[in-house]
Amino acid sequence: MCAAKKLTPMMQQYFEVKRGLPKGTLLLFRLGDFYELFYEDAEDAARICGLTLTKRQDYPMAGIPHHAADNYVPKLLAAGRKVAICDQAEPAKAGKLVRRELTRILSPGTTLAANQLDESRNHYLCALHRDKHGLHAAWLDLSTGEFQLATDTTVDNLLPVLTALEPAELLLVEGDADQWREAPHEDVAAAALRDFCADRLVTELPGYHFEVASGGRTVIDTLGVLNLEGFGIHEKHRGLGPAGALVYYATENLCAKPENLRNLREYRSAQTLLIDPATLRNLEIFSSSRGTRQGSLVAAINRCSTAAGARLLERWLSAPTLDLAEIRRRSTAIGHLLAEPLLLGELREVLRSVRDIPRILGRLQNRLRNPRELGGVRDTLAQIPEVHRLLNSFGESLTRDYPGRIAELPELRDLLTRALAEEMPADVADGGTIREGFDSKLDHIRSLTRDNKTWLSELEASEQARTGIKSLKVKYTNNFGYYIDVTKANLHLVPDDYIRRQTTVNSERYVTDELKQKEKEILHAEEDALAREKELFVELITAVLDQSVALFDGAAALAELDVLAGWAVLAREWDYHQPELDESDVLEIEEGRHPVVEQMLKSADTAVLRGNQSFVPNDTQLSSSEDQLALITGPNMAGKSTYIRQVALITLLAEIGCWVPAAKCRVGLVDRIFSRVGASDDLTRGNSTFMVEMNETANILNNATDRSLIILDEIGRGTSTYDGLSIAWAVVEHLHGHAEQGPRTLFATHYQELTQLEKHLPRLKNFSVAVKEWNDDIIFVHRIQPGAADRSYGIQVARLAGLPPAVIDRAKSILGKLESDDTSVELNAPKAKPRKKISVKPEDDSQLSLL
After folding, report:
1. What is the pLDDT of residues 612-630, one digit of tens each?
2. Are 565 and 478 in contact (CB under 8 A)?
């Protein structure tokens, strides 16, 4: 880097801005029509975006056309980089250094531009702090203004919602990440936080930004209130520390206070169905095992017509409510929508014309403004009268709950309709935002522009007639303005009142006093027209923002309607039925189906592969006090894992208010859903498959309550047979316990020995997956039936998987020897140890054989 005294004034200006940026931030520095990057920033941006790297005075530089910046910035953000924008604050003048200002810092968690966001996904910035009092958190979607905080003494109570939010960026106290990374293995909470932070962009801030008192003052100032009591939040709430850090960081990045924060809500884990991170992953709620939305639960049940509706659906799944009245309200509304299919179709057609008002308001309030945003508000308001008409034709719950929340705002609607052009430009500087006839002053200026151009054409014709020069032309250049062009062959015909301005190879350029005066009028008219449009544009934005509260409230109601209408369509398409929810301890499902697998079986690609198979429904009967624990045996590929997952997903759908893929369903409210399904090595953190399995099992046993739902698949398979069987046995006994009730549990296993527990544990029932045999082959029926499986059919499944016939035959031979305990025959391997008859003394003192 050059010494400061050798830098040009422009580069001194560059480094003054650069020094004030967070480490690693790329600076886009406006120079004329380009954003330029220098030094390491240029090299990094060139690598990420494929820019051409050049040199200026021996230092690297790369440029992005300013009009194309929106195409490149998302690539930089996707690479985990922060991007600072330094714009010219005044028009360039010859011989003077242009004043420049930092206008915005973009980071993955604070970006607002539409092309930098997935319209159907929430986009959270999250702040965390852990101390002796527990875990304190806050999260903010700056694009919509959603703002929440939380605190809990137990990390496991907050990690479910934090994981479901999938924050784009995390704010931590300096040193916290290192502390969690280096914590001893027995510090389970630190390990969980370490895992949560892994593979996410983490920004560290000094600890004083997380102080409760200062955070509270920052939040109060930003919300524009005297205190937080109106939001039900105490001034010493420990989540105010992270909330203040969020506001500080957002303010720094916006280079101004965020103007779209108007509310702060407290998240309470006790009022939410909790789904731990492992279960979110195992049940593929937000992402399939392939890491994509396709194949996930949220994709399977999303029939939304609007982006705001899709984001609300995601939020409902992230934090399912335990408010029975609210769950029933949603479920009942679906019934009213479904009962009127023609009206439902009309409503969804209207909703397709509703624009993304929450994000439009977020951009307008935070100084990202273009005419099309106002067009979106206009187009949405135009749909509201029809929405009201349709709602008043539905059942009572829709008529009661929604019309009053969706304001028509006729004055604003009329203003925008009269003011805005039918086709809106992308930038107000392009002109054409304001409709003809709306503003008399603008119309007059525009008429001058049109009239002046007509005048120029008439001038050219009249001068040709007056001089007799038929080739005479009136032309324009940026350097010389308007002029009369006369070829040299006609110079003898030039009148005396022509004033010569320039000589070219083939012609002479002239002006007249009249032409010079008209030039001023033309140029000023275009500038004046654009200036007037900008004035009117600002006035329209002010009018929209004056109604921002009503607009936002209406948008929230429209998003709810969109989700519920989509679920009504889902219910009709896939024969879903309304579940019954209550405070009981039962879980009853008749002819339940897996909501994702069923749709995949019917999809075009899968139908070709599987021959148009239909999903086989199954029943479920669980109760915390009676049929508490279902032990399910059967071969691999028979459907055990699909079955236990579908029970969990049906329960989750019921508790978010959706109808369910079942003929009949009754759900006593569940406070947590746990799963231990499948496992893989976590070698980057030093965990084997078995360790991952045991960690997840420990979390379940330590946190499950009598109101929880647990699904367990193949506990103990990651270690030796006897160790695994012993652990699985002990887990079953622990879940059953001595009390009169326990968590509703589905336990799938290959350990046939566990089926004997039915005789000794009164709330345990054996089930198996039905299989048909034909000529040493098996046919999977996928039907769950009472009673234990008599064998595992492992070799038959191996044949289906394509193992060579020689391997299958040898496996049969070995199996026969092992089952007969005959180890006298040489197996061409170390002799198998005979299985010993082992008896385990269960907790009720009876003797159970493991054979």
Report:
1. 578 999 999 999 999 999 9
2. no
In 655-708, which ranges are E strands? 664-668, 672-676
**SS3 labels along 575-628:** CCECCEEECCCEEEEEEECCHHHHHHHHCHHHHHHHCCCCCCCEEEEEECCCCC
- Whether 149 and 233 have beta carbons less than 8 Å apart is answered as yes
End-to-end CA distance of the chain: 77
Q: How many CB atoms lie within 10 A of CB 401?
A: 16
Residue 74's Cβ-count burial label (10 Å; 0-12, 13-18, 19+) is: middle
Please report where in the chains the tokens 């009213």 appear, as a residue.
336
The Cα 200–Cα 403 span in angstroms is 41
Q: What whole-number distance in Å separates Cα of residue 316 and Cα of residue 323? A: 12
Our separate counts of H helices and E strands in the chain read: 28, 29
Q: At what angle do helices 548-574 and 307-318 cross, to 10 degrees?
A: 80
672 neighbors 624 (Cβ within 8 angstroms)? no
> E strands along 677-807, which residues?
709-713, 744-748, 764-774, 777-786
What pLDDT was estimated at residue 678? 65
CA distance 202 to 192: 16
Residue pair 228/216 in contact (Cβ under 8 Å)? The answer is: yes
Predicted pLDDT at 689: 76
State residue 79 phi and psi, 5-degree precision.
-85, 5
Per-residue tokens: 85: 């924008």
pLDDT of residue 2: 47
CA atoms of 25 and 85, how far apart (whole Å): 10
Give the helix ranges, DSSP H, for 747-839.
794-800, 805-819
Whether the CB-CB separation of 117 and 133 falls below 8 Å is answered with no
Name the nearest CA neighbour of 278 among 386, 156, 376: 156
pLDDT of res. 289: 87
**Tokens, residue 739:** 């009390």
Task: Name the 3-class secondary structure at 175.
Answer: coil
* The pLDDT of residue 39: 93
Euclidean distance between CA atoms 58 and 14, whole angstroms: 16
* DSSP secondary structure, 423-445, as one string: SPPSSGGGS--BPTTS-HHHHHH
- Distance CA(651)–CA(243), nearest Å, equals 33
- Residue-wise pLDDT for 621-680, tens only, equals 999 999 999 999 988 778 899 999 999 999 999 999 999 999 999 999 999 999 998 655
State residue 684's pLDDT score.
42
What integer pLDDT is reported at residue 635 of this predicted model? 83
CA distance 77 to 169: 11
- Which of 172, 153, 140 lies closest to 269 in space, CA to CA? 153
Which residues partner with 321 through β-bridges? Answer: 272
CA distance 368 to 82: 18
Q: Which two tokens stand for residue 136?
A: 């304190």
Closest among 651, 664, 632, 646 to 601, alpha carbons compared: 646
Contacts of 404 (CB under 8 A, 6+ apart): none
The position carrying tokens 């499902």 is 589
Residue with tokens 């002010």: 542
Provide the 8-state DSSP code for 488.
Answer: G
* Selection from 257, 260, 247 nearest residue 358 by Cα: 260
Number of Cβ within 10 Å of residue 581's Cβ equals 20
Helix, strand, coil % in the chain, rounded to nearest 5: 45, 20, 35
Per-residue burial over 182-218, b if 16 or more Cβ lie within 10 Å, else e, is eeeeeeebbbbbbbbbeeebebebeeebbbbebbbeb
What is d(CA 736, CA 730) in angstroms, rounded to the nearest whole number? 10
Collapsing DSSP to helix, strand or coil, 484 comes out as strand
CA angle, 433 as apex, 430 and 434 as ends, to 5°?
Answer: 140
CB-based burial, 133-158: b 16+ in 10 Å, e otherwise = ebbbbbbbbbbbbbbbbbbbeebbbb
Q: Which of 611, 635, 680, 614 is nearest to 799 (CA)?
A: 635
Ranges of residues in the chain whose predicted pLDDT is under 50: 1-4, 607-609, 681-686, 822-851
